[in-house]
Amino acid sequence: MPGGVPGAVPGAVAGGVLRRLAGLLRSPWLRGGFLLLALGLAAAYLVRERAAVADAWARLDAPSVALALVLSVANVALAGASWRAVLADLGSPLARRDAARVFFVGQLGRYVPGSVLQFVAQAELAHDLGVPRRRAGSALVVALLVSTTTAGLLVTGVLPVALRGADLPGAAWAGPVRWLAPLLLVLLVPAVLNRLLGVLLRAARREPLEHPVTARGLLASAAWALASWAAVGLQVFVLATALGAGEPAGRLLALAVGGYALAWAVGFLVVLAPAGAGAREVVLAAVLAPVVGAGGAAVVVLGSRVLLTLADLLLALAALATTPGAAARLRTAGRAPGEREGP
C-alpha cells in the first residue's frame, strides 16, 4: 500500500488502543487477571471438547498420541526460537529462560478474542527485562511476518508436490501455484522487510526501529520457523497415519505439512477468533478428508488442536515454574534503568 496513507487513521486508533492496554497491564492485579483469564480460556477449550476428545482418542493409539504431543511441544518451542532470533537481531538478546517466559506466557494472549493481547503481554513481559516495548512489539510483528511468509512458501512449494498427479481435490492448481513461491521469498529480503515494517510502524504512529533487521537474523528466524512447521506437519502426519491413511508416506507428509501451513495462514487472518479457532480446523479438515475420510479428518483436526493447546499450557506453566522469581516479576511493572521510551 503506497505511502501507508490509507492505514494512517486506523493505525492511529490501533496504536492508541495498544497504549491503553499496555497501561492497564502495568497494574499487578490486572496482570494476574490477564494470566488467569488466558489460562482459563485455554483450559476451557480442553474441558469443553472433552467428550469429542475422548471419542477421538478411542480411535488413536497411545504411542501415536504421545509422539504427536512431543511434536506439538516442539512446534511451539521452535516458534519461540524464531521470535527470539528476531529480538536478538533487533538488539535485545535474551537468555533462553527469560525468552521462554516472555514468549510462552505472553502467547497465552492468543486465546483471548481479538489477538491484540498477545502483542501487549509480550511487550510488557519483555519490558520487565529491559527490552523497549516498541522493540518487543516489532520483534513479534517480524516473527509473524516470517511465519506467514514461510507458511506461504510451504503452501506454494510443498502442497503442490502432494497434489501433483494425485486424484485429489485441488490437484488442478498444483502446477500454477508453485510459481508463487519465488515471489514470497522477496519478503525475506532485509531491504524489503525493513521497508514494510517501517510502513507498519508509521501507520501505527510508532517510532522507527533503532536497528534494522539483518539478513543473518532473518535467515535464523526463517530456519527456526521452517523447523516449527516441519514439527507440526509431522504431528498431523502421525495422527493421520494412526488412522490408516492410504496415501504413500511421502505424499501424506507433504499434504500434512503444506495443508497445516495453509490452515494456519487462513486462521491467522481470522483475527477475531481466538488463535484462529474454527477457520483453521475447517481448512485442515478439507485438505485431509480425501485421504482419511470426513470422520478421520475430524479426529486429526481435533487431536491437533487439543495437543497444540496443551503444548501452549505446558510450556507457559513450565516457563513460570522454572524461572526464579517469575511470579513476583510478572506482577511487577517497573521501567528499566535508563529507558526513556513511553508506553
Question: How is this structure best summarized?
Answer:
By secondary structure, the protein is mainly α. The chain has 15 helices and no strands.
Query: How many structural domains can be distinguished in the coordinates?
Result: 1
Mean pLDDT rating: 75
Which structural class matches the secondary elements?
mainly alpha
Q: Please compute the radius of gyration using only Cα atoms.
A: 20 Å
- Helical stretch count? 15
Helix content: over 70%
The biggest beta sheet is recorded as: none
Oligomer: single chain
Number of strands: 0
Low-confidence stretches: 1-18, 20-31, 326-343
**Net shape:** globular
Amino- and carboxy-terminal Cα gap: 27 Å
Q: What is the N-to-C order of secondary-structure elements (H for helix, E for strand)?
A: HHHHHHHHHHHHHHH
Strand content: under 5%
Protein architecture, described:
The chain is an all-alpha fold and 343 residues long. It has one domain (2-321). It is built from 15 helices and no strands. It has helices spanning 8-24, 28-48, 50-58, 62-89, 96-106, 116-127, 133-157, 159-163, 174-177, 181-185, 190-203, 215-242, 249-269, 279-322, 326-331. Helix 3 (50-58) crosses helix 14 (279-322) and helix 5 (96-106) packs antiparallel against helix 6 (116-127).
